[in-house]
Amino acid sequence: MGAGEGMNGQALYRRWRSQNFDEIIAQEHVTRTLQNALRAGRIAHAYLFTGPRGTGKTSTARILAKAVNCLAEPAERPCNRCARCQAVNEGRDLDLIEIDAASNRGIDEIRDLRDKVAFVPNEGRYKVYVVDEVHMLTTEAFNALLKTLEEPPAHVIFVLATTEPQRIPATILSRCQRFDFRRIPLADLSRKLERISQAEGIRIEPAALEAIARRAGGSFRDAESLLDQLAASGDAEITLERVRELLGGVSAQAVGDLVDAWIAADLAQGLRLINRLIDGGSDARQVHQELIEYLRGLLLLRAGGDERLVNTTPEVLARMRSQLAGLSLGRLVEGLKLFSQGEVAARGDVRPQLPLELAFAQAVLAASGREE
After folding, report:
1. So what's the architecture of 27-180 in CATH?
2. Ramachandran category for residue 201: left, alpha or beta (phi over 0 → left; psi -120 to 50 → alpha)
3. CB-based contacts of 102, cutoff 8 Å, min separation 6
C-alpha cells in the first residue's frame, strides 16, 4: 500500500495500517491460525489479543472484522474490494464497534454494550466488538462483560486487546481464544520503514533508518510515528546525526566500543567514551539503557539462546559473538547486574551521567578482582 490515495493528511501509521493478513508482519503464528479458522468456518465468539504496543493487535482485529463479513470466497477474505470491506476501510461500517476501555471503563458503558449486542447486525453476518486496552475495565465492568461472554448471541464476536493480560480476570481469559503478539524484529522494522520512505518520497540514510527502528523497541506504530516526526522537519535528507539530535539516540557501534572497553578493563577509555557520547548530545539515561540492552543480548547469546531474541542487525550480531570470546558467563552476569542497578539509581538523579560512570567503574573493578 502506498501514498497518494487521497489521505495525505493522515499520519504515516494510519496511512500504512495493514489491510489484510499478509500485511501483518512477524505475527504469522497468529494470522495463519485465524485464516485457517475462517476457511474452516470455525469462528470463535471471543478472542484475546495480547502483546506489546504497536505490534498489530488492533490492526489484526480490524482485518478479522472485515474477513468475517467479507462477500468474497472464504480463501480470499478479506478482499478489500466488496462493499463490506470498503465500509470498514472507510470507517463507516456500523457492524464494527471499537471501544477504548481506557476511557469507557465503567459498568454503565459495559451494561450499555450488553443491551445492544442483542440487536442483529445492520448489514453483515456478524457484529464485531473490538475492546482496546481491556485491562483498564473496572472489576464491576468485567463482571458485566463476563455475563455477555458466557452466553453470547450467535451474531456477535468480541476481540479484546491488551498489553497487560495479567490484569484480566481468569474467568474472562477462560472464555477467549488467546493470541500472543510478539515484538517486531529489528530487520523487519527497518525493511518496512525503508519501503514507506521510498513510497512517500522520504530521503533517509540507512543508518538513520536503523536508529529509528532500534529506538522503536519492536513497535511498528512507534517506528512510523518517529519517521513521520522526522519527515515533518523539512530536511532534504534525514541523517543519522539528525535522528540522534532529535531522539538522543546512541549507535550500536558506540555501545559496542563501550563494551570493548569494559571487556579490556580499560576504565580510562570507558569514561572517555561516555563523556564523548554525552558531549555529542546523547542522553545519559539512553546510553545506559542501550548498554544494558546490548549486554542482555550478549547474555542471551552466551546462554545459547535463539539469535532472533537479540533484536539487532547481522553486523552487530557478528561483533557480539566475537566479544563473547573474552567474556565468561559469570562476568557477564555481574556486569549486567551492576549496570542495571546503576540505571535504577539514574532515574531519580539530576546528574544521570554519574550513575553510568560509577557503574562502569564498578564493573571494571569487579572484573579485575579489586575492591577500592
Report:
1. 3-Layer(aba) Sandwich (3.40)
2. left
3. 132, 133, 136
Give, in degrees to the nearest 5, the angle at Cα 326 between 320 and 330: 95
As a residue count, the chain comes to 372
Q: What DSSP letter does each residue of 286-321 carry, written as one string?
A: HHHHHHHHHHHHHHHHHTT--GGGS-S-HHHHHHHH
Q: What is the DSSP letter of 167?
A: G
Domain coordinates in residue numbering, the chain: 27-180, 186-247, 252-368
Number of CB atoms found within 10 A of residue 41's CB? 7
In sequence order, the 6+-apart residues with CB closer than 8 A to the CB of 68 are 38, 43, 77, 124, 125, 126, 128, 157
Q: Is the dihedral of CA 199, 203, 207, 208 positive or negative?
A: negative
As given in the structure block, the three cell numbers for residue 275 are 563523556
Would you state the torsion angle of the CA atoms of residues 99, 104, 108, 111, taken in this order, to the nearest 10 degrees? Answer: 20
Decide: pTM greater than 0.85.
no
The H-or-E segment that residue 268 falls in is helix 267-279
CATH number of the 252-368 domain: 1.20.272.10
Q: What does CATH list as the number for 186-247?
A: 1.10.8.60
The amino acid present at 195, given as its one-letter code, is R
> Would you say the CATH fold of 252-368 matches that of 186-247?
no
SS3 helix, strand, coil % of the chain, rounded to 5?
Answer: 55, 10, 35
Is the CA virtual torsion 103, 108, 111, 115 positive or negative? negative
The pLDDT score that the predictor gives to residue 350 is 76
Rounded to whole angstroms, the Cα distance separating 218 from 223 reads 8
Quickly tell me which residue has 573493578 as its cell. Answer: 365
Q: Are 298 and 327 in contact (CB under 8 A)?
A: yes
Q: Angle at which helices 206-216 and 240-247 pack, to 10 degrees?
A: 30
Cell of 162: 491488551
Rounded CA separation 310/182 (Å):
13
For residue 8, the model assigns a pLDDT of 56
Which regions of the chain are under pLDDT 70?
1-9, 248-249, 305, 311, 369-372
In this prediction, residue 9 carries a pLDDT of 64
